[in-house]
Design brief:
Organism: Paramixta manurensis
CATH topology of the largest domain: Rossmann fold
Number of helices: 14
Protein name: MurR/RpiR family transcriptional regulator
Number of domains: 2
Number of strands: 5
Radius of gyration: 21 Å
Structural class: alpha/beta
Shape: globular
InterPro entries: Homeodomain-like_sf, HTH_RpiR, RpiR-like, RpiR-like_SIS, SIS_dom, SIS_dom_sf, WH-like_DNA-bd_sf
GO biological process, one term: carbohydrate derivative metabolic process
CATH class of the largest domain: Alpha Beta
Strand order of the largest sheet: 2-1-3-4-5
Strand content: 5-15%
Largest sheet: 5 strands, parallel
GO molecular function, one term: carbohydrate derivative binding
CATH architecture of the largest domain: 3-Layer(aba) Sandwich
Length: about 290
């Protein structure tokens, strides 16, 4: 099983992170636990299997898929996890009957909690390694499609502002051409919420075969993108009916991009500050004064 960077104590974050990689039955159980965590912590393994309508073996397999020794460890740590987070922080599921003001409140709460959860699960060592990979690369190509393409563009903008050679690609053919042209000393960054966007996975895999270093930014630590990357940074995202286009995941992606930008900037302060100042000076010349 691939490494899951989320701490064992963050049970709900671990289940959320691996959910898309589970079997259908395990996924059903994980969803049940996430939606009923406050009552699940009081269930024995047989009680949970009964109310979730799965087998006891499925409960055990899910616990092991999350990296736990068994259901007993998962339940104890889930209880501790629940005790550390105020009830209001978990938010509520969106409903079709919700008024616009309620939808606004729930989405803001979900996004805020996703950012806080992402901070809790960030692996600092992985973050520092990612910053070093970016700062030491001769060329940086970033791949992302759909909503992730906006994050790729944002990261490209930030790195260029610091003086690092970065490009962003959202076209399938251009991603393959780019990844083929990469060589040892270069870096390919793949961004995909699911970690299953085939062109992004293929480009990152191709870049690795070309000798380049590979870095992935994804919600799922067990995804094909993560498995085809030398280093993966994961983040949290609260699911909604429209989770594939959810702003919670996008904001978490953008926050990680901003953290990398800041860490790299301060680690290479003189160079970065000089480039950033020049970029800001040029930008100010193009602003229209009224």
């Amino acid at each position: 099983m691939a490494d899951i960077t989320v701490p064992l104590e963050k049970v709900r974050l671990r289940l959320e992170a691996v959910r898309s990689s589970l079997t259908p039955t395990e996924k059903k159980l994980a969803t049940f636990i996430l939606h009923h965590a406050d009552t699940v912590i009081h269930h024995t393994i047989s009680e949970l299997a009964r109310v979730a309508e799965v087998s006891i073996a499925t409960v055990t397999r899910l616990a092991q898929s999350g990296g736990y020794s068994g259901y007993a460890q998962l339940r104890v740590l889930l209880a501790k996890d629940m005790a550390l987070i105020p009830a209001a922080a978990s938010g509520e599921e969106l409903k079709v009957s919700d008024e616009v003001s309620v939808i606004c409140d729930k989405l803001v709460t979900a996004t805020t909690q996703s950012l806080q959860d992402t901070r809790a699960m960030i692996n600092i060592d992985a973050l520092l390694r990612a910053a070093e990979m970016i700062a030491g690369a001769g060329r940086i190509d970033i791949y992302g499609i759909g909503g992730s393409s906006t994050v790729a563009i944002d990261l490209r903008h930030k790195l260029l502002k610091l003086g690092f050679p970065a490009a962003a690609y959202a076209d399938n053919d251009l991603m393959m051409i780019s990844s083929t042209a990469l060589k040892p000393g270069d870096l390919a960054i793949g961004i995909s919420h699911t970690g299953r966007t085939e062109p992004v996975v293929a480009a990152l895999s191709n870049a690795g075969q070309s000798g380049a270093q590979t870095l992935a930014l994804t919600h799922d630590p067990l995804s094909p993108l993560a498995k085809n990357s030398a280093l993966t940074i994961n983040y949290s995202a609260r699911t909604t009916v429209f989770s594939s286009d959810s702003m919670t995941g996008r904001m978490s992606q953008l926050m990680i991009a901003d953290i990398l930008y800041t860490v790299i900037g301060y680690s290479h302060f003189e160079r970065a500050a000089s480039f950033a100042q020049k970029a800001d000076t040029q930008a100010s010349k193009r602003r229209i004064n009224t």
